[in-house]
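Supplementary material to the annual report.
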Amino acid sequence: AQSVAQPEDQVNVAEGNPLTVKCTYSVSGNPYLFWYVQYPNRGLQFLLKYITGDNLVKGSYGFEAEFNKSQTSFHLKKPSALVSDSALYFCAVSPSNTGKLIFGQGTTLQVKP
Amino acid sequence: GAGVSQSPSNKVTEKGKDVELRCDPISGHTALYWYRQSLGQGLEFLIYFQGNSAPDKSGLPSDRFSAERTGGSVSTLTIQRTQQEDSAVYLCASSYPAASSPSSLAKNIQYFGAGTRLSVL
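Predicted assembly:
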């Protein structure tokens, strides 16, 4: 079965510290991987994607993610967290670009001043 | 429009009533998706339209759910005989088809509306 796992319901970091939000996936074929962010009462906003090429992908707002094929992971990272980064983050996979996205359960990021 | 537009933003209905949710995709996007976001189930795929192709309905939870897309643009998600477990936020997204994205940057990216919050009493 194709799935995405985000093992942490919540991640807490202090402002200025690096952050990591974890994601692993299970999919047949070549995965198309995405990170989206959701602020309260808002839709999902695209952050970054991995389709092919360099394993380190850079996206919006200083976020980046590293694709690791052997570990089937696509962790989201940022070198220095901001309070305004506090939101709900979703990892998603589109199996071989079938169109639909399979989402993880989401991870709430809390950045404290 | 500038983004994906969904209406209404909130809908309260009584159990057993039918509801219609509307999605207006970004101009030029031929792919349209419906998802459901609920506390217990997270974000679930419901249905996917791509141009004139038959839609992928594999995510629809029951035959009470249906969707159509008229003229290749606006889509309506209909839930008949609503149940309390249908209460959720219904999200719509649109995208360029991969083969004709204007740039590699836009390729495969789904753009989401703000959603319709459905409450079934």
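Chain B touches chain A at residues 4, 31, 33, 35, 42-45, 48, 50, 56, 58-59, 91, 93, 98, 107-115 (CB under 8 Å).
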